TrEMBL record, chain A:
Protein keywords: Antibiotic resistance, ATP-binding, Nucleotide-binding, Transport
GO function terms (MF aspect): ATP binding; ATP hydrolysis activity
Family to which this protein belongs: Belongs to the ABC transporter superfamily.
Transmembrane domains' residue ranges: none
The keyword Isomerase belongs to this UniProt entry's keyword annotation: no
Membrane topology (UniProt): Peripheral membrane protein
GO BP, sorted A to Z: response to antibiotic
Name recorded for this polypeptide: ABC transporter
Domain (ABC transporter): residue spans on this chain: 9-245
A Pfam family: ABC_tran
One Gene Ontology CC term in the entry: plasma membrane
InterPro entries attached to this UniProt entry: AAA+_ATPase, ABC_transporter-like_ATP-bd, ABC_transporter-like_CS, ABC_transporter_ATP-binding, P-loop_NTPase
From TrEMBL, chain B:
Native source species: Planotetraspora silvatica
Transmembrane segments: 31-53, 65-85, 126-143, 149-169, 181-200, 234-254
Keyword rRNA processing found: no
Membrane found in the keyword field: yes
Entry protein name: Transport permease protein
Lineage of the organism: Bacteria, Bacillati, Actinomycetota, Actinomycetes, Streptosporangiales
Keyword annotations from UniProtKB, A to Z: Antibiotic resistance, Cell membrane, Membrane, Transmembrane, Transmembrane helix, Transport
Single GO biological process annotation from the record: response to antibiotic
Membrane topology recorded in Swiss-Prot or TrEMBL: Multi-pass membrane protein
Compartment annotation: Cell membrane; Membrane
Length: 317, 264
């Protein structure tokens, strides 16, 4: 049993197959996933490109009918009551749909009209939201003059025009420079503090660790792990990781010498990762074996390592 | 009043509002075009070509001046052309991943509301064009003031009859070149051979049959017979029936293609 006052999104056996029904050549993007998102939580969907994140988001945004399974949002069925659900959602799509022929403020006004809000309400809200997203000075400017980060903030301001209970963000910081990302994270954190439920997809580990209370890891349309970031790190990795880089000619020999020195070893194209409870000790052991890396780095295990353990692949591949 | 207010807050009106909001930027230019276009046509074809044609006293014109004869044809064919252009390029653009339909679809609007809202916009634009064109024609004395309003109504019907199927098709299009091909090989031939510039009775009989089958001829002939006062009940019925079927089929298809495109 789910309680609709606390569980805002409830997906059971959610499946998305592209192509005609019964078509053998159909492509299964989302393969029977189950998850719940609770009120006030920041929930992340983590996965590499093509893992099924965006398809999942589009189904939750009620612009893509589920092929099978059930999806209840805010107590409504996503298939039957799409319009009622969308009225209470804020959507920040990966491909932003900002109107480049209108000004920054006009974009908020005209989008708000789609929700049936009055001009009076919209004028007041647009001023407040432009302030919130630090775009007040740009209010009357053409969208074309905005930087990538500003444009993304405008998309977020627009998504908040109907005062949504849930905000969906599909890869919100992809393509932004570090400064723009940090400002965006800070604003999203502020939203979360105000009690807005956030659901975001990302392939950035740091983003997931910064923002998400809880997340699912998706791979090939399935959920392969679920939990809080710290929980997942504790469950799927050892405490530390030793990263070694070698001169190109010596890589294979050095890698072979390292075998058996750590409980788990991952070979990436550019470096070797040794999972261990004590990185310094392992590094000493490496040196004792006569291994001479170009660089050696001991760091704490992160979500990146969780993903690597679960899928055998790096996230940004 | 209360029900009226509620009707105007229906989803389709919100989409109409979007297009009208954008139109605020271009309305002056569009009015200049709506008035300039008939001025150019009436001057070139009436004073220029018309003088030449009228010397022949062709029996096909049934005693009308060439200008009076072609005026409804140019209006109807022009309305068709504008309806196609407004319901093809902008629809294709709007349905692209970054297009305005995508923004609207993430709000309470449904694909059908988006379609009807955009269709209302084309209807308003066609009405504006037809009214201005007819007003210019009145100044030239080439249209009977009593029949002018009927001519406007015919023009609006033709605009919807072409806009609906054009939108149904355009929402599935992904490359602008496809629209160019459709314009050159379908819309322009219709414009030329549907009795816009000459009576189709002049054509060989086999080509007359082709002209009778084409949709624009029904619009042109309806407009012309209404404007010249030669309409027969039977003819009017067939023409309106043909155009109404286009509206109905166009809307049926567009509802499906819009839904399929926007709800992948």
């Amino acid at each position: 049993m789910t309680d609709s006052s606390t569980v805002l999104i409830d997906a059971r056996g959610l499946t998305k197959v592209y192509g005609k029904p019964g078509d053998k050549a159909g492509f299964t993007a989302v393969d029977g996933i189950d998850f719940q998102v609770r009120r006030g939580e920041a929930f992340g969907v983590l996965g590499a490109n093509g893992a099924g994140k965006s398809s999942t988001m589009r189904m939750i945004a009620c612009v893509s009918p589920a092929t099978a399974g059930s999806l209840r949002i805010l107590g409504y069925d996503s298939g039957a009551d799409g319009a009622k659900i969308r009225a209470r959602l804020g959507v920040v799509p990966q491909d932003d749909t900002i109107d480049t022929e209108l000004t920054v403020r006009e974009n908020l006004l005209i989008y708000g009209r789609y929700f049936g809000l009055s001009w009076k309400v919209l004028r007041e809200r647009s001023t407040r939201l432009l302030e919130f997203t630090r775009l007040s000075e740009k209010a009357e400017d053409a969208v074309a003059t905005l930087s990538g980060g500003m444009r993304r903030r405008l998309t977020i301001a627009r998504a908040l025009i109907n005062e949504p209970e849930i905000v969906l963000l599909d890869e919100p910081t992809t393509g932004l420079d570090p400064q723009a990302r940090h400002l965006l994270w800070e604003r999203l954190f502020q939203l979360k503090q105000e009690g807005v439920t956030l659901l975001l997809t990302t392939h950035y580990m740091d983003e997931a660790e910064q923002l998400c209370d809880r997340l699912v890891v998706m791979d090939a349309g399935k959920i392969v792990a679920e939990g809080a970031p710290a929980e997942l790190i504790a469950r799927y990795t050892l405490r530390e990781v030793l990263e070694l880089r070698f001169a190109p000619g010596e890589r294979q020999i050095m890698t072979d010498k390292c075998r058996g020195l750590a409980e788990r070893m991952e070979e990436l194209p550019d470096r070797l990762l040794l999972s261990t409870d004590n990185g310094e000790e392992t590094l000493s052991a490496v040196h004792r074996q006569g291994v001479q890396p170009l660089t050696a780095l001991v760091r704490r295990s992160s979500l990146e390592d969780v993903f690597l353990t679960l899928t055998g692949r790096s996230l940004l591949d | 009043m209360h029900t009226l207010a509620r009707a105007f807050s229906a989803p389709a009106f919100r989409e109409l509002g979007y297009w009208l909001f954008r139109y605020r930027r271009t309305w002056r230019g569009s009015i200049v075009i709506s008035i300039g276009n008939p001025l150019l046509f009436l001057t070139a074809l009436g004073l220029g070509l018309g003088t030449l044609v009228d010397r022949e006293n062709s029996a096909y014109l049934h005693g009308h001046s060439y200008l009076t004869f072609i005026l409804p044809g140019i209006l109807i064919a022009g309305v068709m052309q504008i309806a196609f252009l407004e319901a093809s390029g902008p629809v294709m653009q709007s349905a692209l991943p970054r297009g305005s339909y995508r923004a609207a679809a993430s709000t309470p609007l449904e694909p059908t509301g988006i379609l009807y809202g955009h269709l209302m916009y084309w209807t308003l634009r066609a009405t504006q064009n037809a009214v201005l064109f007819t007003c210019v024609s009145l100044l030239f004395g080439t249209v009977d003031p009593a029949r002018a309003p009927l001519l406007v109504l015919v023009a609006v019907l033709v605009a919807i009859a072409f806009a609906a199927p054009a939108a149904a098709w355009a929402v599935t299009v992904t490359r602008p070149s496809q629209i160019n091909v459709m314009f050159r090989f379908v819309v322009l031939p219709l414009y030329m051979f549907s009795g816009t510039f000459f009576p189709i009775e002049q054509l060989p009989v086999s080509l007359q049959w082709v002209a009778w089958a084409t949709p624009l001829w029904h619009g042109v002939d309806l407009g012309r017979t209404v404007a010249l006062g030669t309409a027969t009940p039977y003819g009017v019925l067939i023409h309106i029936g043909y155009l109404s079927v286009m509206v109905a089929v166009g809307l049926y298809l567009a509802r499906r293609t819009y839904r399929r495109k926007l709800y992948v």
